[in-house]
Amino acid sequence: MNIVIAGAGAVGTHLAKMLSRQEHNILLIDSDPAKIENLESQLDIMSVVGSCTSIGALKDAQVGKCDLYIAVNTSEDQNINSAILAKKLGAKRTIARVNNSEYLESENAEYLRSIGIDTLIYPERLAAEEIVASLKQIGSRQLHEFSDGRLILIGIKLWDNALILNHTLAKMGEVYGADEFRLVAVKRDNRTIIPRGNDTLKYGDLIFVVTKPTFVHNVFALCGKEQFEIKNIVIVGASRIGIKAASLLEKHYNVKIIEKDREKCIQLADRLKSTLIINGDGRDMTLLREEGIKNIDAFISVTHSSETNILSCLLAKKMGVKKSVAEVENIDYIDLAENIGIGTLINTKLIVASHIYRYTMNVDVKHLKFLTFSEAEVFEMEAETGSKITKHQLKDMNFPEGAIIGGVIRGSETIIAKGDVQIQAGDNVVIFALQSAIKKVIKYFQR
């Protein structure tokens, strides 16, 4: 696929690295020659130095021949204008990053589609929604819903109180019910394993389980996780993510925001309805004690510093907070943060990549998520009529190594994938796969 990326910032750079590894033809546009030169020395990509709103630069980038145009500059005005121009010049699909939720309202989004922007991406809103989702099930590191919540993927760390510790997968399914959940991956020693029936679960494993909503409580019990109700939340950092998360959470919880910048605090007082605004440093233990940290159920740190967010969450854990969420934009820190016990990690680059990557796949992908703690992806796609995946039962399918089917949505029926299940045309299938197996998996779902 021919892909043009406008903007060599953090998001654009991450997309260029990821998509170039998938053997797409990538061309990057940016007005900063130093950024372009640096990326060209690292990646197998082409480039154009110039403004993405310049028709000349877009023609030099041959956007008229591109399959996908992605505008991810920090300026939403540039992104909107360049995506419209790219579409006019012949780009097949355009995606633009925005920083204003007004653009996502159905009437406005429809208007933008009519003038050339096929898809809008608002990373901070997506991150805020992911934070809200992470608070639905306390005890999980990650939680993602498929087909409007009819199948759920949960990432859970196993400690010494887990009932399934030292069980093989075959034994676990036999004892606890293979019809209700399926373990699709294990992260152990910074390596992601697609498990088989004779694999044993060990202390410290991060496991990923696909289950039905009615069995979620049982999964947590088997993993030794105690559920509790969240009432009180502290958010450190009045970033766009922090503000959006507060606006979503204050409808159902008692929310406080701690922000160092006094001017921001004054502005926030008018923007948020019931959130309490506190001017201070979220790493100040005295301040946290004064604000009743011992009564806080969830602590969310979303400042612009990954280091500050990690340290703040560690402090909160030390002071007794059970649920912590940290924005960690430095990908090199993710394994570190997971190993030291930060509950949920938010990374906008991975969130944006998840939403964009599905447009590069030649099948109907309804939902795709890059997992923060793993070099794997989980996605939902529809089985086409006559596709290879519909020919045999799963046990006879010889499905690619590095991939596993977790569950199936068939009409009103929700099915956990077992060996005797046979996929039918029109089924929505939830798949967990390492990146090395994705191309092989896709072939199973094509005619």
From TrEMBL:
Pfam families: TrkA_C, TrkA_N
Keywords: Ion transport, NAD, Potassium, Potassium transport, Transport
SUPFAM superfamilies on file: NAD(P)-binding Rossmann-fold domains, TrkA C-terminal domain-like
This protein's GO CC annotations: plasma membrane
Protein name as catalogued: Trk system potassium uptake protein TrkA
Single GO term (MF): potassium ion transmembrane transporter activity
InterPro entries found in the cross-reference section: K_uptake_TrkA, NAD(P)-bd_dom_sf, RCK_C, RCK_C_sf, RCK_N, Trk_Ktr_HKT_K-transport
Limits of the RCK C-terminal domain: 141-225, 363-447
Ranges where the RCK N-terminal domain occurs: 1-121, 230-351
